[in-house]
Amino acid sequence: MEVEQQNQNNREGGAQVVLCLQPSSSISIAYHPSFGPHDDLMLLEVDEKLLSDILDQKVTLRGQPNEDAVLCTPSKTYVVKFVGTSNSVLLIPPSDQFAYDCDEKDSGEMEVASVIKVAPGCMELVEVAPRLDKLKFLLSENLYSFYEASQMDVSEGVEKCDVGLYRWEDLVHRIQASDMELRSGLEALFAVEINGYWRILDEDYKDGILNMLLHNSVLNDWSFDALGEDEVVAVLVADGFPGQIARHCLQIYGSKADEGIGGSCIWRLDERRVCVHFAKRILRGGKMRLENFMEEWMKKAPEGMRATFDMLEGEVLSEKIGIETWIYAFSISTLPSTPTERFSILFKERTKWEWKDLDPFVRDLEVPGLSSEGLLLKYTRRTQPTMDAEPIFTAR
């Protein structure tokens, strides 16, 4: 490959010269007057399905200085990786002097393409799961409590401290996830926007408002399957809870049974969510004998709801101590979402797992391009002494 310095007898056509190059023909190249490293220019290889989002400027690069950059479309997240190449990749800018005509012939000048940079490689995009573990960490810095709710009215006009509080734009700046994935993450945490900040209610506050809702359901003869939103909110507000938090309570522990077009929405309490809430409260004290736990749990569960042990899948672990079975809290909600960290914690908790115990704690893991079976092959060893025996999983 011959590279020459640009001279007056050469006709510089920029990238258009290369685009007009015919098969089996060649062209000279020369150093552009501005040739150099140009670290601000990088090649990015993209899939066709991403091209429209990039051209329409619907993508953003997200990450802190100590994090690897990710590129986010409105709905997905891609890690940005540099891939080097052993071949010379020449960057030729378009000509800014004149429009180049491919049909134009001029035998008096030699056509050359001016190279402004030799690229050592390009950036590639690899789809990844959103990095949402940081979201729970940030929102847990300042939980919304009974005390804060009680101070809202008396603190009007007083400057409030916003330490540990995050607006939507703050979260977008800090969390490596697309907008759609970020909103899904907030919904999964049952976060609520209060005075412009996204908050999580602390456990005592959730327990207080749920118990008040259940108490009022008995007093007012409300059906757990048909709670009128307007009536429930009005009663809870009268009991001292903010209206926004009262509605949020229905979202945490229920689901809409009827949108109520033109009137109040109808909500149905979720039996599992309510019963699991009371199970967690009981196990806050630590490990318990299974018989004692079940007895207390049945007493705490609201009348009309049936608490069953299978509801606690992914929320507790049990172990045999002698002839007795003991149970303790071990919630999937506390585990990291990255497979490496998740399996590390699981195998620190237990060196051996039966599949029936392991499955609830790994089935939510998602790695684009890797199946659940692939995840198990990558992070675990499976042993099965006999065909009839339950498979056992250990760390790889």
Automatic annotation (TrEMBL):
Q: Pfam families, from UniProt?
A: Dcc1
Top-level division of the source organism's lineage = Eukaryota
A GO biological process this protein is involved in? DNA replication
The answer to keyword Kinase applying to this record is no
Q: Does the keyword Transferase apply?
A: no
What keyword terms does UniProt attach to this protein?
A: DNA replication
Q: Its family?
A: Belongs to the DCC1 family.
Identify this protein by name.
Sister chromatid cohesion protein DCC1
Q: Which organism is the protein's source?
A: Cinchona calisaya
